[in-house]
Amino acid sequence: MVVGVLGLQGDFAKHIDILNSLEQTAVVVKTHRDLKDISGLIIPGGESTTLSLLLEAQGLYEDIKSLISDQKLPVFGTCAGMVMLAKSLVDAKEGQKTFGTMDISVKRNAFGSQISSFEKSLFVEGIDSGPVHAVFIRAPYVVRVGESVSVLADIEHLGTRYPVVCREGSTLVSAFHPEIVGDARLHRLWLEYCVYDG
After folding, report:
1. Is 183 helix (H, G, I), strand (E, B) or coil?
2. Fewer Cβ in 10 A, N or C end of the chain?
3. Does pLDDT of 110 surpass 60?
4. Domain range spanning residue 131?
5. Number of structural domains found in the chain
6. DSSP designation for 1
7. What is the pLDDT of residues 182-196, one digit of tens each?
8. Cα 21 to chain centroid, rounded
9. What DSSP state is assigned to residue 185?
10. Distance CA 81, CA 45 (A)
11. pTM for the whole thing?
């Protein structure tokens, strides 16, 4: 089994390191030919507007959307990856595109700017070995979930709880960056529930 990690921006190398620690074959995806023979795809963090432009420039947008929508390719999106997979954005920039393959609505930079970044421990359904140390950097959160979407973790912000980890079929998204702290448990959860059993 081969897992692709989108390598157009973001800390994709840390995702590769985690996959290697889980004894998974991982490849960096930068061109159409890199999508060949992958069994799953990770979309790392970064800046979602820039990422959508880079995907278009590299001719990858339609290819990846088709793989997820039509061929049900398992996918794991972190931070900007969550934004890219959302069916809708409440604050999209003009012309901003997402893959629209997960039935959630997302608010970008929901907790504020870079200076408002923070860390928090939270429990994720399906991970029984203690809380996950979550790093939120200009992070999104989910404002609406469809009937087929499961919320695995949420967080309180200004008196309201918002989902920050969700699953729908073979798609998993998180608003934070598990790769930054080297915590492999969310990747393992995706591999077990979405890739192998999805």
Report:
1. coil
2. N
3. yes
4. 2-196
5. 1
6. -
7. 899 999 999 998 776
8. 19
9. H
10. 6
11. 0.94
